[in-house]
Every structure is written in C-alpha cells, then in structure tokens.
Write a structure and sequence with these properties.
This protein is an alpha+beta fold. Helix content is 24%, strand content 33%.
C-alpha cells in the first residue's frame, strides 16, 4: 500500500509543480490602502497598512518600485505613534521590516510613500481626452504602485481610501461604504471587500464616468447588484450592446457553479492593456474596444466567469494559469450556447481549436515549467486548449459527473488557491474513476492527436484503421470512446496506441466515415477509402 501511494504521488507531482520563483514569506491577511491623486500631475501619495500572520521569525518583506520615496515605515504602530517606529531596509526595490515576534503571531506594518508610478497605475488621457487613473496589475505589477507581496498564492481582504478631485468617480474592489467631501474640493471614496482576493486583482479606477445599474442577479443565493461604468460617450452603446445581458450571465453561472462569490459586480471601461481584466467585483475592459465598437458578449462572459475561477479560486502558481483562463474560456462558450443555442457553443469551440492548430505555443505543454516570462503564458495553451481540456473531460465522464466535480472544486477552494493536482483529484472522485492518465496527457503532453483514418470494405462491413501520425514530439495519445460515424451506423474506437482497427458492420456501400461527429476531442483527422 505504501509503495502504491509513493508511485501515485510521483505520477501526480508534475500536476502539483510550483515553478514560480517567488513564494509567500508570511501570510498577508488584509491590505488597507490609502492613495491620493491630483488632476494636474501623475504624482501620487500613498499609505498601506498590512496585517500579517507570521510564519517564522524572518523579517516581513514587501515589494515596491524603487521610483517611490518611502518616507515612513512602522510595525504595530498607530497613526502618529513614534514608539512603533522600526529599523528597516530597502534593498533592490524591497522593503524589509524586522520584528521580534514568533511564528503564528500577527503584526501590522505601515508604509508611507510618494512618487510617480512607472507602471501598475496607468495615468493618461482617455480616447476622448479626459484624464483617467486605472490600476493594471496583472501579473505582478501591483507593487509598481503600492507595497505588497505581489504573488497569486497569497490572498487577502482589502480596503481602499481613494482621494481624488470632486469631478471624478472612483471604483475599487468591494462595497462602497462612504463618500466624504473634503474642504478643499477633493473627495474620499471608501471601499471594503471582506473576502480574500489575489493582489493582482486589487485595483482602483478614477475617471469621469457614467454609471448605469443593470439590475440584480443570482437572487436565488443573494441578490448581487450589477452595474456598468463607462466614459459618458460610450454609455448608451455599452448598456444596450455587450452588457445588455450582464445580469443574466451572473444568473447562469451562479446556477451552474455556485453562488456569486462577492457582494457586487461592476463592468468598467478603462485603459487596461488587456482586452479585459477580471479584477474582483470591478472588471476592467480596454477603452479601444468601446471606441471601435468591437467589445462582445463573449468577452463579458469570459471576464465574469473569472469571478469564480481566477478570483475566488486562484491558481497557486502562474504555471497553472489554465485553471483561470481555460475555465473562463470554456464557461464563456457555455454561456453562448445557453443564450444563443448549441451552434454558438460549437462555433466558439471550433474557433478555439483553429487557434490551437496554428499556434507555436502548441509545441509546449499547458503546464510549461520552463516558462519564465509570465506575459507569454497568455497563450493558446492556457486559453482555448485549457477550455478544450475541460470539454474533453466533460465528454469523457458525462455531464452529471463533470458539473458535480466542478461545483465541488469551486466550493472546496473558494477564497483559496489550487493547483492542477487538486482539480484532478476532485474530478476523479466525482467520476469514480482514475483520471490521472487524462490529466497527465492533457496538461503535460504538447500538441494534439493527428489521425490518418482509412476505411476498406470487407464484405458488408467497413474495416477502419486509425493511425496516429502527429509529430513524435507530441507523443501518443489515448482517446477512449472515440466515435466513428459511417452512414447511419456508429461505432466506438478505444484508441490507445499508434494504430487501432475497428469494424463497422453492415455499413452502406456509399457510407463515408466521420471521426468524432459530436466534437468531443481536440484532434485533426483525414479520412480516405482503400479498395
């Protein structure tokens, strides 16, 4: 029994690989972020108070871009409390804060700083010439504007106090608690989110915005207010176009996966460098997509699905990004199928397959432990191929086991982090089967099967030979229950090696063979008849 367990652990190890070079030093529990901006400069003033649970006696270490001047650092200090001052260092863009506490203790650090951000908080005029300030953190750019432990595996609750000129509206994560007008024409907006989220989704947006409520969603669990914030010039198009069914999308995912994980959801036009960025409760979309009127509902569904997968359940290591992007891509396709019919779902999946077949990323596995450039992980492996991994799994185990397993995965790891091995284990239990082979094949092998299918007539039957002809780099694939259609007859082929032969009995003379007619497998095939 022990030997079997050890062998199983070794086989699963790659699915639990954590190649990220940065790992949590201590456990950040809560960020209290104060930031003040001005209308005529890019200079910001900030103060961040962080509550930590210590895991050792090692110093607390945070990252902050060296462009900022740090004017005060304190540990366990109240505002203005000089007793709480501590010696600290700042090597190579880090803030190192020693302490005298033990593992398991909590400590609160406070960092006051100011300067002009080079990245992370993007300050520039929008497409209409109006000024805007938008955080754009992914993957590790949050520390370019506030001190943090900037890794996905450490989640925390967050509170924002944003001071801005009175002409601006401010959005941030969570619930707006209050807005205070100051004597000199500025306003402080206070937001609180008491659910832990990854640092890369902790954001603020500051601009002249039109705000449109879109109703409440997921009321079977708790009613979630949904809203759209845009530049005033784009408001009518947005609310009547890509966001017209924004609340219905939340309803659908809530019923399919589990209750919406946060108290509200706002869709925000912004200057993000990405088409969409799934910040918890405040999704940012690229303003250029509004100006060109090309933002579509599929993107809205994708970013909304991220609230469950990516935000509530976060990949513990960037190399498992498919747990976020693959899930969002697949559930976006499911929404399109639900809303617009099965043909819309199939079109989305075919479009993803075409991208995979023509992408150089296909030469690498989904879990690519050699990858070090995090931006290059935004590729077809983690998006459409991750989605196809889920689709193949659904076809393999059936709808009941698939969605039961997905719901269990979500409920088990909600507000926490997970690796591919965690998802694989839960899906195996839901299916009541050993799925280790499937996940190793789907996540650790590059490429996809390429099948040379040849049919020859033998009496009243067709003898069909299936040969795997993909690049040797891709390896051999196992394709159980591969469906072959010949006229009105259908047979199942369990493809396990380089060559598999099946017989279609009493096939019509003019019957042509169709491989995988229901579209459950990511593969390419050519079919020919032999005399």
């Amino acid at each position: 029994m022990l030997l079997t367990a050890l062998i199983l652990a070794q086989l699963q190890a790659p699915l639990a690989a954590r190649p990220d070079t940065l790992h949590p030093g201590h456990d950040a529990l809560h960020y209290d972020i104060t930031v003040a901006v001005e209308d005529t400069t890019k200079h910001i003033v900030g103060e961040v108070q962080t509550t930590w649970r210590l895991t050792s006696t090692a110093p607390v270490v945070m990252e902050l871009d060296s462009v900022f001047r740090v004017v005060r650092v304190a540990a366990d200090a109240k505002p203005g409390d000089k007793v709480g001052r501590t010696l600290w260092g700042r090597p190579n863009g880090l803030i190192v804060i020693p302490h005298q506490k033990q593992a398991g203790d909590t400590i609160t650090t406070r960092v006051r700083y100011h300067g002009t951000p080079r990245d992370g908080l993007i300050i520039r005029p929008n497409a209409y010439g109006d000024r805007g300030f938008f955080a754009d953190n992914w993957p590790d750019r949050a520390h370019d504007w506030f001190p943090s432990q900037d890794i996905p595996s450490d989640k925390a609750t967050v509170e924002f106090h944003v001071q801005a000129p009175i002409a601006y509206q401010v959005i941030a994560n969570g619930t707006l608690k209050q807005v205070d007008t100051l004597a000199y024409g500025n306003v402080v907006w206070d937001y609180v989110l008491d659910t832990p989220i990854p640092v890369y989704t902790m954001v603020v947006g500051i601009a002249r915005m039109a705000r449109t409520p879109m109703g409440k969603a997921d009321c079977a669990a708790r009613c979630v207010p949904v809203a759209v914030w845009t530049y005033p010039q784009d408001s009518a198009w947005a609310v009547n176009g890509p966001f017209r069914r924004a609340a219905a999308i939340v309803d659908y995912f809530g019923g399919l996966i589990g209750p919406f994980p946060y108290p509200s959801l706002t869709h925000v036009e912004s200057n993000t460098i990405f088409g969409g960025m799934e910040n918890a409760t405040a999704i940012f979309y690229d303003e250029k997509a509004y100006a060109m009127r090309r933002l579509d509902e599929g993107t809205v569904a994708h970013e909304t699905a991220h609230q469950w997968f990516g935000d509530a359940v976060t990949e513990a290591d960037w190399h498992h990004l498919w747990l976020s992007e693959g899930f969002a891509t697949y559930f976006s396709a499911l929404w399109l199928g639900h809303a617009d019919g099965d043909s819309a779902f199939r079109a989305a999946m075919r479009g993803g397959a075409t991208q995979i077949f023509h992408s150089p990323a296909t030469e690498r596995p989904i879990i690519d432990t050699a990858a070090r450039d995090l931006m290059k992980l935004l590729n077809t492996n983690n998006y459409p191929k991750g989605a196809w991994t889920l689709h193949e799994l659904r076809g393999l185990v059936g709808d009941s086991a698939f969605f039961r397993g997905v719901r269990e995965y979500y409920h088990t790891y909600r507000d926490s982090t997970a690796l591919s091995a965690d998802f694989a284990a839960i899906m195996g239990r839901a299916a009541g089967a050993d799925l280790g082979w499937f996940f190793r094949q789907a996540l650790l092998q590059p490429g996809y099967p390429v099948l040379d299918v040849r049919a020859r007539r033998k009496g009243h039957d067709l003898v069909v030979t299936i040969r795997q002809t993909q690049k040797p780099l891709y390896g051999t694939y196992r394709i159980p229950n591969l469906q072959l259609q010949a006229g009105t007859e259908r047979v199942t082929a369990d493809v396990e090696g380089p060559e598999t032969t099946v017989r279609v009995r009493d096939a019509a003379k003019d019957a042509a063979v169709v491989v995988d007619p229901d579209g459950w497998w990511l593969l390419q095939s050519t079919v020919s008849a032999e005399k």
